[in-house]
Design a protein that fits this description.
seven-stranded mixed β-sheet; alpha/beta; 6 helices; binds zinc ion; 276 residues; 14 strands
């Protein structure tokens, strides 16, 4: 499998819109991997994770073949992960040659309902379809077995993280979440028979300390990893990536990499590709 991190920041981007904090200023000055757009990832060039406000920019920056992508799994209805306003452009008049197969948008109820609204308001069922997913119920998309797991995040919007399996490879894409909920631990313990090949885990609060609910900081990130190792869900072969950063975590890419590499953890940046 291949994962490409397209965007790796939290809601306001990194540097953040309007912000003049020292971390944003450092990112602006150093540029390169220190500039992060809003969170999105692409699996094997064909399965998109999240549809945020930087989808258009990612298409240009990383030559994402949006016209060939027919499946997007969405974690939750926060603006950095789901920007439904731009779904309407996937139709005749705005885009040529899009008739062959619709774009299927998978998500829990808030995502499902917003997508249905776009389909109905724009009368575009041949271009767009909504698929409702249920936490802990596995569904199939192309060759992938995908299981949404409940995230420890804004409970009002049924947020999920995704366990994705194809052939003998498994990855867990876990943003946005704090320390996992008991039900999610239970599911992972009972169902992950072979340690994960790749884990991308929330590190929104960077080098701050003690973040447990909603998001993780690097110290609690390591607590999650420790428990995953004890439960044999992660082992020494698992590629572990810290991802989804806020400037409020006081860690540019350079700062975060220095800290994370002490623990064999890699750090995402926009455009990073990993084959595993
Ligand atoms: Zn987010
Ligand atoms: Zn800032
Ligand atoms: Zn969120």
């Amino acid at each position: 499998m291949k994962i490409q991190f397209l965007g790796t920041a939290a809601a306001e981007g990194f540097p953040a819109l309007y912000c003049m904090c020292p971390t944003c200023q450092e990112a602006l000055l150093k540029k390169g991997k220190n500039i992060r757009s809003r969170c999105q990832a692409l699996i094997d060039d064909k399965l998109l994770i999240d549809f945020g406000p930087d989808t258009y920019y990612h298409m240009i920056q990383f030559s994402v073949p949006t016209e060939k992508i027919h499946h997007v799994i969405v974690t939750h209805d926060h603006s950095d992960h789901f920007y439904s306003n731009e779904l309407c452009f996937r139709r005749k008049g705005f885009a040529a040659k899009v008739e062959d197969e619709p774009l299927y948008v998978y998500g829990t109820k808030p995502i499902y309902e917003k997508t249905l609204n776009v389909i109905n308001e724009e009368s575009m069922p041949e271009y767009l379809q909504a698929v409702l997913v249920t936490p802990f119920k596995t569904f199939k998309v192309m060759d992938y077995q995908i299981t949404p797991l409940k995230a420890n995040h804004d409970r009002r919007i049924d947020p999920v993280i995704y366990l994705i399996n194809k052939d003998d490879k498994t990855l867990l894409y876990a943003h946005d979440t704090g320390y996992f909920l008991d039900e999610t631990w239970q599911y992972l313990k009972s169902n992950v028979k072979k340690p994960l090949d790749l884990l991308s885990l929330d590190c929104t609060a960077g080098i701050l300390k003690g973040w447990r609910d909603g998001h993780l900081s690097f110290d609690t990130f390591l607590e999650v990893i420790d428990r995953l190792k004890k439960e044999n869900i992660v082992d020494s072969h698992t590629i572990i990536i810290a991802n989804h950063f806020s400037h409020n975590g006081h860690a540019t890419y350079d700062t975060m990499l220095e800290e994370a590499s002490k623990y064999n953890v890699d750090v995402s940046y926009d455009g990073k590709v990993i084959n595993f």
